[in-house]
Batch of 2 targets.
Target 1
Amino acid sequence: MTAVIFFVVLALYVIIGGFVARLVKNKDDFYVMGERGSTVLIVGTLAATYLSAVTLLGIAGQSYAEGPLVIAALGSFGAWIGTLLAVIYIGRKMKALGCKTMPDFFEKRFKNKSVSIISLIIMIIGLLGYGVIQLIGAGLVLSEVTGISFPFMIVLFTIALLVFCALGGMYGVVVTDTIMLFTMLAISCIIAPMIIGQAGFADMKALADTIPFYWSIEGAEQRPLGWSISQFLVWILFFACTPALVSRVFPAKNDFVILKAAVIGVFLAPFMQVIVFLAAGGMRVLEPGIENTDNVMVIGFLNHVPATLGGIGLAGLMASIMSTASTLFVLTGFALARDLYENVYGKKMSDEKGLLAGRYAQIIVAIIVCAIAIARPSAIYWISIYAGAIFAVGWLPTVVGGLEWKRMNSKAAVGSMLIGTTSFVVIDELARREFITLPVHIDSLMISFAAGVISLIVIGLLTKPNQYEMDYFKEMKQTSLSTKTINDILKQENGAAKLKKEYKQTMVISISFIGVAAVVWGYFLMMLG
Amino acid sequence: MNMDVFILFFNAFMTTVLSSAVVIWILRKQYLPVIRQLEAEEEEAEDSSMESDRKKEASK
């Protein structure tokens, strides 16, 4: 039964991905879907990319074992704030500058080969390392559940990702992400509430009587509060600069789409996560003895909801893997084809050849991903420790400095990127080998982020920006996405009326979602508070 | 009331409040002045067309 669901869902995603590929006519379609992304599509790709298998497997398992508040109350809160910063601050600013990928920003801001190459190396290591390890982890769980052999499953996933990424590019990824979001929402809106309903709020609250601290931020393991606060800060840094989220705004039609997507997407992030974590707590009532806690939600899908809904739950789990993986891998392909081959090596190509190069890069990435995932070399586990967070230490200081500081220059960027990333790996390795002991409320990422910021400021003060960097900074400060959006809309027929309509619609969505959030979270507080 | 549970749901709620507040601030700061200016121009154009209509009526 589970294997049938797996094949049907995968086939469905591939057919949709293949159909969407027909819409890709040129390079602009391939990289930013011709900047035609509507609010539904941008919300879809943002929320689907945000919700990865980490939520449905790892953190759900931790919520089951230690209590639903351990990660959700502060760690996840940091992720939600980081997502808001990624979309509304960094994403909007980069889109205003005409960036189609994040490395575009480094290229435009510094016009310096060292900066471009270092930023690309960070990007490829970060995206591949983080993406492959998620694919391996989730693939192992699905392989166990469906009985399909792990290598065969990875090959099938790779073929599906090839259809989304190589044929459809950003178009394929955004549209399939949006469709996948609906299966993920089925988990949060129907399946998880059914599990909570079966467990009952009273019995869930009573878990604290048998498992001390189950309904506390410290959790059953009684983690120090300092650890939770450090997780909050780390997740803000992690999410604020991750290309997977920032790049979701590049295909958007205009600024209003981004603003609406920010409100709805940032509402959906806690909505999708917290309800899953509460359901994991409900599973502790229904099945207290699960040893492999990563499987807790899968067991919930299979044993505690009707078979059809259980199948949709598994499809949602697959969607969470594929939507995040497709975004990570499509961006890696973009980095190879557009940022490295076209920009750094200055290969000027026609639209047709550029599109072909983009597709070849996706095929190369797919083959590499497939080989690493099946071989599972021990090095990939080591890389994955640092891959996800590398953008926080390697990119974030340079991005914010580049956007806001007049003295920012290529030397400060190179210094900050190198010191941030190397100190991150060195400090963490020393701590893991017990040469040094870090205080419980200090994460190695926080120390290396501070090192990156300090080195950026010191080098920036000791050196001067060149003429190009000063001119671009001035030009950048006069560029805003709102001005561009206003001008574009006013050029249309009945432009003034359309502008007013968009303004009102965005305002209504912003206000009404505060009401929706009050009702949803107020209800859960009444039941569990 | 379990304060830790309250913190979880308060944070989830405040995330939406924060994102909505930022968006409303952007709308009012970057879009509202332009919309007001467009409305003023529309009113001005309407007034001047009514004025010219009145003059035409009077000349008849």
Note: Residues 398 and 413 of chain A are 5 Å apart (CA to CA).
Target 2
Amino acid sequence: MKRPAALSFDYWFKVVGVGFCFFCIVLFLLAFIGPPFISPFDLISSKDPLAGDLFFKARLPRVLFAFVVGGALSASGVAFQSLLRNPLADPYTLGVSGGAALGGVAAMALGFSFPMVTLVAFTGALVSLLLIYRLAQVNGRLPSASLLLTGVMFNAFAFALILLINSLISFGQAHQILFFLIGSLEAVSLNEVLWVSLLVAGGLFILFFQSSHMNIVSLGEETTHSLGISAEIHRKIIFISASVIVGATVAYAGLIGFVGLFVPHFVRLIFGGDHRLTFPLSVIGGGIFLGLSDFLSHLLFWSGDLQTQLPVGVITALIGGPFFIYLMKRSL
Amino acid sequence: MLQTNNLSYFINGRRILDHVSFQINSGEFVGLMGPNGSGKTTLIKILSGAIRNYEGSATLHLLHINRLKPRGLSQTLAVVPQEAHFAFPFTCLEVVLMGRHPFQKSFSFDSESDTQIAKRAMQKTDCWQFADRTLQTLSGGEKQRVLLARALSQKPKILLLDEPASHLDLKHQEALFGLLTELHQSERLTILCVIHDLKSASEYPERLLLLREGRLAIQGVTREVLTEENIRQVFDVSMKKYVPDTRRMVDAS
Amino acid sequence: MSNFRLKILLFLILLFNFNILSVASAGVVSLKPNITELLFELGLGDRLVGVTTFCDYPEEAKGIEKVGDYSHVDIEKVLKIHPEIVINSKENSIEREIIFLEKRGIKVKFLNFDRLNQFFDSIGDLSKEFDREEEGKKILSRIKSELEELRAIDLPSEKVILVVGVQPLVVVGGNNFLNDLLAYLNISNAAGGSRVRYPNWGVEQLILSQPTVIIDLSMGTEKKGEAMRLKWYRQFQSIPAVKNNRIYFMDIDHFRASSRLVRGAKKIVELLKP
């Protein structure tokens, strides 16, 4: 399918449809392949509790979670990129991830129970976004450069505070802080996946209907006005929805890097810039990318006598980093 | 009808526009001139609704521009910005179709008629041939023609242009002003165009506004404004050097 | 004039006084909790002049000046104390800091506790260092004989998993002190096949390894209550340990490389006894 000069509904429907089918197929395969392979027939027919436990308590939540988190991070990447008119923007550059991690770490240091930690991490994302938003405003407007700089500074500040907390609290809790900093898709229940998915779906729904506005917003504030939408209102909607998504994912999965940066860029190289197409494809691509990364991180467990698995963030960075530089060099 | 009354604007306490008052009637073709930093671009931004916290008044058909909804405003008024930065690989057709955005629902695809309007606009500005190329691959002048096509596809009643000819070669400069004159005559399009080139300024617009240090120094019918004395006062150069045959033109009237 | 001389003299006395005092101190600094415990056992507790913030056993250790935490050393404090010797283990140490101390003439002795036999050797080394070889041998033989007794107990064959942390899930693998202890007691470690000392597991691996006993040591490392943890394990009814309600919680500090280790080992054996 050659990319047409401008997006038509037919083309959109075909590409997104194929993408979605691919998404479902990969999800389905990863859920069963493993390793170890879980036969769908075993699940239906046999009363072997092992297969059931393995599938419903461990495999399915983790694979679903990977797809949800990947899609969410990628979607928020697209949103922040259009907002800042910069393909290098992502939840990290904006400081929202840092705020969420800081909230989570602070809650742990204060000895909160785990559900509270998640809640505080989420609150941390929202509070940090409001703070960044207020601080970045200049004369009632929100210039991209100011938002980007404030975000980067805020992130540095948040990480300094995390390290400060880390050095003050006992060694033991450092283990859990590590969880926030390197990210993990493990140990979530289907229930938790459902909650994250609800929040993420809400954000994605709003962002999806903003996707044609993202095109306009990406042209800059003045052009946004002259093409008929209020820059302030739509930038706010996009910023807040994307931050809610990031808050929810970071609270449950910690910091997983590169997805929001790498996937949208990849999608744009193939399918062009129109956000009506880029956005849904990035959600699909992000899910597949993180799902496959998670698969790879588990492969190590079955290879030889290491019997350990890598943090999924290691895989995303190992694949994403070099590939990203390659793509950037090629497109320049 | 565009009108300003004692329009002033400050950035960090620095005065950019200083009590500017003028009126542009429907169907007029007005040129806006002035040295760098005289406030031309700021004025365009205020009239297009991008800057809203000005002092004094700026009205479109007697309605305050900063109180108009962007959607409504953009259905009558289009802007060709001086320069545009495209962060993402949009094709030219996609960019021109964005001019139809004010007429579309919040999430929709471009209809056949939208595409036709965009195509016609691109043919008028001689850029249909690179419809499927991305903006990044175009030269400055080609980009400007695409931006003009985008503004035209808004089917505006009023067109504001910020130095639309700055990157154009001679042929396309002539074509641009020819097109503007044609639109102005056939569709009674109201045009406010920032012009640097004295020769173009003397040939195309009916009236001229001359800004100097944020003040409206001189306004009036083109041939009355473009005098040696006025040009020396505003631009600090001799007009003769740039438009050698002005006298002849003035004499001919 | 003499007034001026006096001042210089006073200044010099003050200047050197500091050094004289510090050189005169002849204490021992321990940079690991288990080393502190061993030193007390050897009867050297009164010579300890610096310990870490984690040295909480025996009770007297808490009163000694803190000169470091789990990995860091407060270099200035150690230099000021100027101990006769600093004792440290290779694990979790920041080499640069130790080299810095050595360059300034402070003797640093490293002991190794990575494996069970290294632990036994280290007790000997430590006692030799302080001319307490007799006490050292006594302690060592006591530990060994007590472990031998435990080893002699006939245990049903269970597959045990030692969980160090739940989020992320970290377990005790092979090639380490605790795995050696389990092997010594003829207890099979479900994660013992891993070459990684503390491998990172997924929930899937926990289920697949089908342990018959889960011993959770993560109380010290995570702020999740016992009840919550139990609830978390209970979701996985296909794990024999869960189905048969054999999930136990222990403090990982009971497995420090000191003679308290025997108590920890005893507790595990008791848990596994039919």
Note: Confidence is low (pLDDT under 50) at residues 246-253 of chain B.
